[in-house]
Each structure stands twice: as C-alpha cells, then as structure tokens.
Amino acid sequence: MTASETDRAIDAVWRIESARLIAGLARIVRDVGTAEDLAQDALVAALEQWPREGIPGNPGAWLMAVAKRRAIDLLRRRQRLERKVEELGHELEIDGEGAAAGVEAAFDDDIEDDLLRLVFTACHPVLSAQARVALTLRMLGGLKTEEIARAFLVPESTVAQRVVRAKRTLAEARVPFEVPQGADRADRLSSVLEVIYLVFNEGYSATAGDDWMRPALCEDALRLGRVLAELMPEEPEVHGLVALMEIQASRSAARTGPSGEPVLLLDQDRARWDRLLIRRGLAALQRAEALGGDLGPYGLQAAIAACHARAHTPEETDWMRIAALYEALAGLVPSAVVELNRAVALSMAFGPATGLRLVDELAAEPSLKDYHLLPSVRGDLLAKLGRLDEAHAEFERAASLTRNGRERTLLLDRAAACAPAAGPGPLPDPRP
Amino acid sequence: MTMRYILLLKTEENSALGAPPKELMDAIAKHGEEMTKAGVLLDTGGLAPSATGARIRLSGGKVTTTDGPFTETKELIASYALVQVKSKEEAVELAARFLRLHQEHWAGWEGESEVRKLLGPEDFALGFGQD
After folding, report:
1. Chain B residues touching A226 at Cβ < 8 A
2. ipTM, two decimals
3. Which Pfam families match (chain B) (predicted)?
C-alpha cells in the first residue's frame, strides 16, 4: 500500500468512527472540546503508525483502544480517575473494580445516547449558527477543517478559529453533555434540525458563488439527518426533515443543465429524478405521519415536495393540495416567503390572475424588499397574462437582486425572452 | 462528493458448512443497524439460492432461458448492500467489516466481497473510465 493509499484508508476509518469516538470520549471527560482533541490524538497516532506497521486488522477497534487509553491517561493526570469511576459506577450500576476497566465499560455502553448528547451539545443555542454548523460537520460529520472551509468558500483559518472559539464557549458556559428533556427539548431539537437544514440548503442552492449547487454539502446534511432519524425515531419532525432532504436531493441531477445552468422544477426531466431517494423520502414522510399529530414545518414542506415527486408529469401535479399545504405551513410559521410560494401554487391551481393578486399584496412586504424570487414570480405571472413589458422589468429586477451567478443568467434570459413575440415561460422552483 | 457503491457478498452455494450460525445472523443484523445509524446504508437484501432463479442469455442470435440452480458456478451473489460514502476506501472498509463478522462467527466460511461503484452524475459529466 502506498503512503497516499494508507492516508485514504485512514480517512475512511475516521469518517466511519470519529463521531462515535468523540461521543464516547465526551461522556468520560464531560467536555466535547477535550473529547475531540483526544480523538484527534488517536488519529495522529494512526497517521504515524499505520503507514509504518500496516493497517491493523480491525482499524476501528484500534482507534477506539488508543482513544480510551488517552482518556484514562488524561483523567489520571487530572487525578480524577477514582472519582470518575465512582460516578460512572453509580450511573451504570457497575462495580468499579479497577479504574481503567470502569472507564472502558462506560465507553462501550450507550454509545447512541452519547451520540445524541454530542448532537445536542454541538448545536447548542449558546453558539452562533456558523459555529454550530462548523462543530457539527467536524464532530458528527467527520469532516476536516479544510473540507468545511472549501464547502463554505471561507479560508481554512476562519473555520479553525470558529471551531476553537465554539469549544471554548461551550466550556465557559458549562454546557452540560446531555440530551435536553422537558420543555427545553423541542426548542433544542429545532436548533439541531436548523443546523442540518442550513447545511443542506447551502449545498442545494448556494447563496453565493458560481456554482448552482454544492452536492457534497447536501450529502453531508443527508447523512447527518439519516443518523438523527435513527437516533430519535419517535420525533416526527426529524423524519419530516429527512423526507424533505431526500426528495429535494432526488432532483439534483435534473436541476442542472449541460453547462451548469439551473433547470427549474417544472422543466426538469423527471426521468433523471433519483427514484431510490424519492422512495426513501416518501417512506420517511410516512414515518413522520404514522407517528400521529399534525405535521410540523419540515413535515409540511416534505409533503409539498412529495406532491411534486409523485407527479409523473408537471401536469399531474396536485396544485390544490400544494396550496392547502402552504396554507397550513403559513399557519405554523407565518412568513412572506411561504405566502409567495402559496401564490405560485394558487396560480397553478386557479390561474395566474389569482396568484398575481396575492403577489401584489406581498409587494409592500418589507422582508421581501431584496428577495429576488418576488420579482421573479411576479414577472412570470405577468408574462403568463401577456403583460410582457412589465414582466421584462420584473425579471431584470430579479436578476439584479440575486447573488448567484447561474441564477442571474437565467433571469436575464427570461427578461430577454419577454419580447412581445415570446410565449410564457415556466415558474420558478416553488420551494420555500 | 459522495458516491454509491454496491457491496456484493459472494460465496459457494450448498457449501458443506450448512446454514449460517445464529450468532452470525445476529451480528449481521447488528451490523446493518449500525450502518443505518451511521447514515450510510441505503438498501440491503439477501438473495435466495440460485435454484429459485434463472439465467437468460443472448447467444448466436437466440435468447435462451436456463432455470437455476447454477451448479457449475463456484461463487454466487448471496447478498448485497447499497451504501453512500465519500470514498472507495470507506466502501472497502465496510465490506471488510462484513467479512470480519463471518470470520468471527462462522469458522471455515470462505467467500469474497466485491465492491462496485454505481455510476453517478459525475461519471456522465466526465465520460466513463476516468477516476
């Protein structure tokens, strides 16, 4: 095996093991920052030894053993081992016969609970959204600092600083390593879901830069979402979020044209939608619904995405149901963006004039002042009504507001197409 | 960029070892659960003995069907797992873990796992055969 092959093999093991390693360590040392440092130490040991001695027969177990040893050493240095074993023994109802054995036992126990604790700690509201994203991708996604930096188009040093500061903030705020219970739980869970969806969305429709999508980020978010769904099978909104991401990701290949330009939902070649992801998404939505109660914001968005996924042609789309789902969504999380999407659905169900009335009401909405999809939708409806001069102006305005290069080109094309001879074009991706 | 790989487990059919031990089946179930919990397992399935299958062949301008079992074949696909991972090495490590379970729980068993990448959009963009 060459050095670079060994490195790639170590990367692979790290990707598979790191979250469990960090979670298990955090339970022992009660601090995710220290836990992550210890896990990194084990990684460094692998990077030093494996190229020389070959990759061990069971690399995961090797990393775990080294990490445990480091944790025990650390506790011993801190002279806290005896007390820790006493605590753990109490918690786990085991006899602390031999301190190290006690820690080892604790390590193997309830690793899933530890993972959940890690999720909730990394996404703690005491941290900024950016810090939560960086910590989550690093500790749970197994991404390296440079990979996070590349994904978010920021310098590596910025991400490194964010991680260091986040760890310090958690330590200083004495954030407990635990899964919140009671009234706190719902809030904290929505903070976790927000982080995952933020990562997904950043990949799905890049807010800046030249690429329309950064698929790697979508995949990372999906992986995190799938993990969370298995860790919290009783939470409908977790399945709702996973359903939403699976279905949206199913369209990835169809969302981009040959030269990287965006292709809108109703223009997409549905044969290129990924059937496996659609199937998984619909199954996740079913799990959310089966848990009973009304769907939450993610579940409702997933239900909307499912309406599109179930339609074999754009004409088969159940726009009435989509409009009703947007209304329910607006009831839960009132927002002008949701209203805008509802206007699109209404226009598809009842004609462009109905949609335009609602869009015109939204025109005065301060929160949409610089939102490029408002003039974009308005331009589309005007074009359908044959008011091409107005449509042209709206598309130009939309183009001036977007920060995504690919999208700007698309909007300028549509503006140009609003010459009097041009026919009506498609609607924008009706997605909140 | 993540990729999908199919991990095929191949083994001799009707081997003298008989049915797989319960410990192995339990370990496989746990392994599948762990891969699901790690967010990498998309789909999985076991294949019934080849006696329940058929081979359909085009040769010499004729389509012919032969029912199983395929006694002349040494190694047949016994199960598959479809995973989504970031590298071939990650898929290889998952396949190796699966074999280690057999090693641990089924003395004398031999077989192989074949790891094959599914073509993704990236392959169509680049043209086939590039790595």
Report:
1. 36, 39
2. 0.83
3. YCII
